Every structure is written in C-alpha cells, then in structure tokens.
Amino acid sequence: MITGFLKISLCTSIGARLEDRLYEHLEWIAPPRLQAHELLVEEMIRAGLEVGSTTPYGTALMRCGETQKQLGETERKFVQSSNIDFLTPLRSFTEGEYRTIQSSYQMRMNRCNQILQKAVSLKQSLYKFIGDANRLTDKLLELCNKPVDGNSTTLSIKQLKRLVEETTFSQILIPLQSVLIPTRPSTGGTNGKHDAFLGHSAYLDGFEDVVEILASLQKPK
Questions:
Q1: How far apart are CA 114 and CA 95, in angstroms?
Q2: Which of 37, 149, 178, 208 is most solvent-facing, going by the fewest CB within 10 Å?
Q3: Same domain, yes or no, for 204 and 146?
Q4: Cβ atoms of residues 129 and 137 within 8 Å
Q5: Are 93 and 20 in contact, with CB atoms under 8 Å apart?
Q6: Are residues 97 and 137 in the same domain?
Q7: What is the model's pTM?
Q8: 29 shares its domain with 96
Q9: Residue 206 resides in a domain
Q10: Whole-angstrom Cα distance, residue 81 to residue 75?
Q11: What 3-state class would DSSP assign to 66?
Q12: Residues 6+ apart with CB under 8 A from 204
C-alpha cells in the first residue's frame, strides 16, 4: 500500500501510471513519450519563434520554455532516482523480507537457513564459524533450561567451558554497542578499503567453572 501511495505522489498522471504498469506486467520496455511539461516546453518555444525571437514577448516565451525544460529534466531525474534508490528497495523489502518477518516460525527459520547457506557459498570458511556458533547457542540454551533444586546457588558449566576453550573454536564477537556503531568515510565516493567499524572488537575468550543462580522464582542463571 505504501509503495502505491508513493508512486502516485511521484507519477501523478493516471494514464502514464496505467501504461507503465501494463508494460511492467508484460515485461516490455515502455516506449518514450513526451510528458506534460515537455509538451508545454515545445509549445512555448514554438509560440516564441512565431511571435519573433527578437521581440520582448517572444524572448520571454522562449526563456520561460527553456526554464520549464530544465525543471522538467530535474523532475525526470528525481522520479528516476526515487524509483531506483527508494521505491525499488522498499518494494523488495515489503514483498520479501517483511513478509518473512510476519510469517510463521518455520518460514522464518527456513529463510534464515537460506541466508546462511548463501553466505557459506560465498565464503567457505563461514561453514565452521556457523557450526561453532550453533554449538555455543545449543549449550547456552541447555544451561538456561537445566533444572535446579531450590537450594542451589551455583551450577557447573564445564561442558560449555571446554567448548569455548577448544583450540580450533571460532572467534565469537561480543556485540558491545561501542563496536556496533559504523563510521562513514571521510571522503565521498566509493571506498572499498574503508573500515566502517573502527572500535576495538571484543571476542568471547572463556567461561568460569560455575555460574551463579539468582534467588528468584524462575531461577535465572
């Protein structure tokens, strides 16, 4: 719905929108056509030449026509850039990722797996990293769900400790706010060597032998 409202705002001609929609549906390239402001430009310049380009009125018509032409070109560029830089990404999000967010748990899980598989296909070393991250997650969930008696104040986590201390275990970044704030390049344009995250990254190094159990109803650890 929001993309439709934005399209109406950026392309106000109903006939033009219907024609573009038809060509888009048929996957055809729409033929070039003169917009309303372009027709106005032609008529103003033609009228100026008929009156006389050296007369005051003719000169005014031709100057207004040239100004209108510049305004029309600016409008065309704005509509094109709005479609490329805003409407198309927004449509992609609303028709893709947004539906996934609103979908069932199973569909979200399948989409997550697809994203991870694509990442692994682009960089094979991520396969082990994702596997280690899943193992860590499973151990943390196991720890959280492990039942304890009412008098216990600590719990052993030797298995979790051994997992993280493996020599081949991947580096797991701790998501501190200080290292998650990106910085923009100091110069404009494309900069492939720019590091957006300049903070000192902190990685998971290990766990203590025991974890404390808080004295509340749910016994959080």
A1: 17
A2: 149
A3: yes
A4: no
A5: no
A6: no
A7: 0.47
A8: yes
A9: yes
A10: 10
A11: helix
A12: 136, 164, 171, 172, 173, 174
Alpha-carbon dihedral angle through residues 109, 114, 120, 121, given to the nearest 10 degrees: 170
Q: How far apart are CA 221 and CA 208, in angstroms?
A: 13
Both 82 and 145 in one domain: the answer is: no
Specify the amino acid at residue 17. Answer: R
- Give φ, ψ of 190 to 5 degrees: -80, 130
DSSP 187: S
For the chain, helix (H) and strand (E) counts, in that order, are 9, 2
* Per-residue pLDDT at 17: 59
Q: Which residues contact 180 (CB under 8 A, 6 or more apart)?
A: 197, 199
Q: In this structure, are 7 and 85 located in the same domain?
A: yes
Tell me the C-alpha distance between 141 and 54, whole Å.
85
Distance CA(31)–CA(164), nearest Å, equals 62
Q: Which of 207, 106, 113 is nearest to 160 (CA)?
A: 207
The pLDDT tens digits along the chain (221 residues) read 434 444 444 455 545 556 666 766 676 776 666 666 677 777 777 877 887 878 887 788 788 878 888 887 887 788 778 777 777 777 777 777 776 666 677 777 787 888 888 888 888 888 888 888 888 888 888 888 877 777 777 777 788 888 888 888 888 888 788 777 777 777 766 667 777 777 677 888 888 877 787 777 777 76
Cα–Cα distance, 176 to 174 (Å, whole number)? 6
DSSP 33: -
